[in-house]
Every structure is written in C-alpha cells, then in structure tokens.
Amino acid sequence: MAESPSTPAPRATANRSTTPGSDAFKDYISSGWAERPVSLPAPRESAAFAAARRLRISAQHPGERLVIPAGPAKVRSNDTDYPYRAHSAFSHLTGWGADAVPGSVLVLEPGAEGHEATLYFREAAGRHSDEFYANPEVGEFWTGPRPSLEHVAADLGLATRPLGELAAVLDATDASTRIVREADRELTDRVDGRRLMAAEIPGDIEQEVDAELLRDLSELRLVKDEYEIAQLRQAVDATRLGFDDVIAELPRITAHRRGERLVEGTFDRRARAEGNTVGYDTIAASGPHACILHWTRNDGPVVAGDLILIDAGVELDSLYTADITRTLPVDGSFSPVQRRVYEAVLEAADAALAIVRPGIRFREIHQTAMGVIAARTAEWGLLPVSAEESLEPERQYHRRYMVHGTSHHLGLDVHDCAQARRELYLDGVVEAGMVFTIEPGLYFQPDDLTVPEELRGIGVRIEDDILVTESGAVSLSAGIPRTVDEVEDWMAGR
Ligand code: GLY
Ligand code: MN
Ligand code: MN
C-alpha cells in the first residue's frame, strides 16, 4: 500500500533494532559496574597559554559576556556525522583540541575584576541514566567515555559546569553578550532570542558586535606564542614524514589507475598516525591537474614524465596544522622545461623569504614574489608588455599564470586569522612570532594559447611555512627538499 503523503518519514534510526525497554533490562544494565578510579591529570601544556590568551580578550571586552562555542557535530549524511572538529577560537581559548567534547561552550562572564571563565560541557553520564547504552549520538557504549567535570577542570585549568546549566546563565539579563555566531547556530539563536526579549540591541547591530568579537579573536592569533610555534614545528615535521611516505610509495602510486588517491591515502595515513588528521583536504594533482589550484578530487593517474603537485599538511591533536606544497617529477628527474618553470617559482619563493623580517609590510612579500614571476614570464615572451609594465596595478598580465596570493597566516586554521582587519593582515606590519606561508606558483593551463605548447599543462607551486624571528625569518619547512637537486636526490633515496 502506498503511504499517504502526510505519513511522517521514519526517524533515521527507527528502522534499526533498538535497545530493550523492559524494566528488567534497565535494572540489570544499570547495575554491576565497577567504581571508576578518580585520578586527576596535571594541567596540559597548552593550559597556561590558553589562560594568557583569555586574559587578553578579556581586557578588550570589559563588562561584556563573551560566548565562544566549540560547535556541535556536523551531519555528513542522515545520521552520520563528519569527524568532530571544534571551532578554532574555542580551541585557542581553552587549549582543548581533538579531544574536545562536541557542543561545549566557553563563557567569559564579566566580574568585578576582569572575566571569570567557565567551560560548559556534557560531562560523563552515570549509570543511573540510560544514556550510556541507549543514545547512539553521545552514549558511552556508542562513542566512548566522556571525561568528568573534575577531570577537564584539572586538565585545562578551567572551571567547568554541566552543559545543562548554560541556558540559565545565558538567559540572565545582567550582561550584554557577544557570541561567536558561526560556531553554533542553535546557541546563537538562543542568544538572539534573549537579546530580542531584553531589547538589548537591535538585530542588525547584534550581528555587528558579534563580528567584532570574531575579528578580535582572529587578531589575537596573529602573533603565535611559544606553545603554538612548537606545535607548528611539530606539524611541519609530521608533514615531512607524510611526504617521505608518498615518495616511498611511488611505484604503487604510478601503477594504480587512480594514483592520486593513493597519494592522498598515503599522506592521510601518516596524518592520522602522527596527528589528528589533515588540516585541509590534500591536493594530489598530477600532470595538468596541477593547474587546478584546489584539485582535491584526486582521481587521476600519476604518470611518469609528469610533475605531481602535492599540497598537504598534518593537523596535530592540538589542531595546529602545517601547509606545505612540493612539486615532484614523477619519474625522479625534471625535464629541462619543467626545471625552468620550477626554478622560476623557487626564485620567487626565495626572493620573498629573503625580505621577511619584523617591520616590513605583509603585502611586500607578495609584491616581491610577483616581481620574479613577472620578470620570468616576460623573459619567456608570455606577456604582451614588459615585466615593469605588467607589474603596474592596472595591468597585472603575469597574474594569468598565478591568480592566487603568495602568503596567508597559518595556525589552528590553515588560513588562520581570516577575520583580522586588513590593516593588521594584508596591509599590516610583520611582527616576530607571526607564522605564514610563502607559496608562489606558475600554472600554465593545458588550453592556454598564450603559452608555447611545451609549457601547457605544467603547474608548479612551492609552499613553505615561515616563522618571523626578532631579526628575520626561518622556514620551518626548510628541511623538506625544495631545490631541483635536493628533490631529485630525495626521490632517488639519496
Ligand atoms: N592548501 C591551501 C593553501 O595552500 O592555501
Ligand atoms: Mn597555503
Ligand atoms: Mn597549501
């Protein structure tokens, strides 16, 4: 019989067997469990750094309640979620990384002296509730145990309260509130509803005050602390291992019809083994796919004679990620034309790195790289004007072959500090402790009639992760081969 259109769709789990509902079963499963040992951890390394960051954002927002949600798990399909990842602003201010409990919320409550920080989260459920065996979303038998309030308080050096108490705190009307809107829609709706009732501020202004908080939290991350720098170094080191793995796997990669997938899988294996996961989808772009800047479908073959561009980064359990690109000759040696393109990109990268020191403007890094890109493409006869003319802001012909920027900040997000004001980022002054990429490239599309045939289908990017020091800069990824000779030696196992 056909269902009437008004019959509600079955719940996602309604067609699967469920736990028994008999009282006998409930009594039985609720008893007979051993006591759990209570041993509290020492604060993790990130705790003191996170506390210092909270003090800085607190000083910027006296008298305001600040709400920074980790965010809920996100649905991938039906009742299957993506692997959980907390919002970066939340991780930055709590030090809670890959092991953060979904749905947690950090609240900075204004008090007489600065803010009091409280972390609200869904703590371990006891055996008195049926959650632990009957709730596939969060039950211990389904997704593993959650820590207790006391455990997290000791681990992160933060006051903790049950998530269930949060609503009452937010509904209290004695403080104006700012929330990181994008992190948790439901919670944001709740805060907006409360603002409406209190007529605290009109709707369009609330978006603005929230955006200011997000901006401030983004700018808080522009200069990395000692812990963050150590994490980024470690992420780069793990990424190096992932690249080594790919090279060791090349015979199998080239033998497979979807070799790019094997590159991705090989790197992913290392990322999962050493860290949390990859910081962004791996780009494994062989041959002409290298001309597609964010090629992540990765379903092509890896063919001898071509170059393969691999843009990949390991994200650690702390959620700090590397972002590194190497372009490798699949058969181990660059052809003369591949070498010519590669060396032009390398020259641009080296020139850009050479100017980095505190006091320069961030945009000068890109301008320096573009000087080289314009010079080489002009020298090869690709531009309708001279390099100098092409570099004029209203011309920019050379950008046909590199449409992306040269640098972005790096940290918890691969494109970190994205909401920072332009005057502190693109137009900002470079400071010691900043970490960003330098990643020039040249991409000659397979159907680009402005370039000679021998260049068509060649794409090269070289991307390194740079730390600004008091006197200049160091490349955290300098140890990953990048000159032509180094790359050829690397691939030959030398
Ligand atoms: N992996 C993305 C980027 O390089 O910005
Ligand atoms: Mn990048
Ligand atoms: Mn990249």
> Which CATH architecture of the largest domain is right?
Alpha-Beta Complex
Q: Looking across the biggest beta sheet, what order are the strands in?
A: 6-5-4-1-7
What class would the helix/strand composition place it in? alpha+beta
Mean pLDDT: 94
**Biggest sheet features:** 5 strands, mixed
Features:
494 residues; alpha+beta; Creatine Amidinohydrolase, Chain A, domain 1; Creatine Amidinohydrolase; 2 domains; 5-stranded mixed sheet; 3-stranded antiparallel sheet; 17 strands; 14% strand; globular; disordered N terminus; binds glycine; binds manganese (II) ion
Element layout with pairings:
Layout: H1 23-29, H2 46-60, E1 64-69, E2 75-77, E3 80-81, H3 88-94, E4 105-110, E5 115-121, H4 131-134, H5 140-143, H6 149-156, E6 159-162, H7 166-171, E7 176-179, H8 185-198, H9 203-219, H10 226-248, H11 250-255, H12 259-274, E8 277-278, E9 283-286, E10 307-312, E11 314-315, E12 324-329, H13 336-354, H14 362-379, H15 387-390, E13 435-438, E14 441-443, E15 459-461, E16 464-468, E17 473-475, H16 484-491
Parallel strand pairs: 1-7, 5-6
Antiparallel strand pairs: 1-4, 2-3, 4-5, 8-11, 9-10, 10-12, 13-16, 14-15, 16-17
Helix pairs in contact: 2-3, 10-12, 13-14
Provide an overview of this structure:
The protein is α+β, with helices and mostly antiparallel strands and 494 residues long. It has two domains: 41-218, Creatinase/prolidase N-terminal domain (Creatine Amidinohydrolase, Chain A, domain 1, 3-Layer(aba) Sandwich); 226-492, Alpha-Beta Complex (Creatine Amidinohydrolase), CATH 3.90.230. The protein is built from 16 helices and 17 strands. It has helices spanning 23-29, 46-60, 88-94, 131-134, 140-143, 149-156, 166-171, 185-198, 203-219, 226-248, 250-255, 259-274, 336-354, 362-379, 387-390, 484-491, and strands spanning 64-69, 75-77, 80-81, 105-110, 115-121, 159-162, 176-179, 277-278, 283-286, 307-312, 314-315, 324-329, 435-438, 441-443, 459-461, 464-468, 473-475. The strands form six sheets. Strands 6-5-4-1-7 form a five-stranded mixed beta sheet, sandwiched between helices. Helix 10 (226-248) runs antiparallel to helix 12 (259-274) and helix 13 (336-354) runs antiparallel to helix 14 (362-379). The longest helix has 23 residues, at 226-248. The radius of gyration is 26 Å and the shape is globular. Residues 1-11 have low confidence and may be disordered. The protein binds glycine and manganese (II) ion (2 copies). One manganese (II) ion (MN) binds at residues 323, 408, 437, 439, 463.
